[in-house]
Design a protein that fits this description.
By secondary structure, this protein is an alpha/beta fold. It has a 7-stranded parallel sheet, sandwiched between helices. It has helices at 19-30, 46-54, 69-82, 106-134, 154-174, 192-201, 205-215, 224-235, and strands spanning 10-14, 34-39, 59-63, 86-91, 137-142, 179-186, 246-249. Strand 5 (137-142), helix 5 (154-174) and strand 6 (179-186) form a beta-alpha-beta unit. The protein folds into 2 domains: 10-187 and 224-248, Rossmann fold (3-Layer(aba) Sandwich), CATH 3.40.50; 188-221, no CATH class. Bound molecules: NADP nicotinamide-adenine-dinucleotide phosphate (NAP). NADP nicotinamide-adenine-dinucleotide phosphate binds next to helix 1, helix 4 and helix 6.
Length: 255
Amino acid sequence: MSTTHPTRRVAIVTGAARGIGAATAVRLARDGFAVAVLDLDATACAPTVAAIEKEGGQALAVGCDVSDTGRTEAAVARVADELGAPTVLVNNAGIIRDNLVFRMTDQEFDSVIGVHLRGAFLMSRAVQRHQTAAGWGRIVNLSSSAALGNRGQANYSSAKAGLQGLTKTLAIELGPFGVTVNCVAPGFIATGMTEATAARTGVTFEEFTERYAKAIPVRRGGRPEDIAQAVSFFVREEAGFVSGQILYVAGGPKG
Ligand code: NAP
């Protein structure tokens, strides 16, 4: 944590301790934002914060469960106090609890919807107050190619399709206040999340990635930086006429 910089806009990236969120937080700091690195456990955010500070950026580690109303309200208030009013929000936090529908428990369904969809709603509701007050803002939601349907992911694909609807509705409601809302929908990206899927299916991550890469037109798996790059586009000043869009970043056409 460091002192408030009057000219820096403030961005919150959820689930930023690792994976796509960490790469996005680093990228937004390079783009000139002060970044609240938010994740379940504040101590897990330390490496992302250190990476940003090493490059001369400004970052704050924030521990918060995005599915909890009180905690999201408190986290956004803390960011406003310590970094400045947040006007950029990247709803990236996520979990998977895969199972075929006949085996999927209520808990598996509710927890995934709770983090992805309810979490994005709660964070957006808290942050939009600062955005509308500023007359400027950017929200980017992380959907997935799984929104188009994916075996074993009734919970996850529902949440990711829901995020596309949330994106379009928020774009309509918040547009008059200078706020754009867009969605990045990644295909296969090498992170802890896909490593866990490989482990569950009993193959090495290398084999798993190779298998995916063969079916991807650009013939490689995605990297967290590929997604950070797309988020960086949506939050920039010049993208102010782009809103309510779903961008599949999957090495080929989707949707
Ligand atoms: P990841 O490596 O598993 O990182 C997700 C982060 O979110 C973790 O640090 C996790 O913390 C955190 N998180 C989980 N529940 C949270 C909560 N309730 N509140 C705050 N933070 C929470 O995942 P990723 O692969 O980078 O994925 C990032 C986003 O991209 C997710 O929304 C995912 O669905 C989406 N996506 C990923 C892929 C892919 O191929 N990787 C493809 C399409 C979409 P813990 O580690 O403590 O759980």
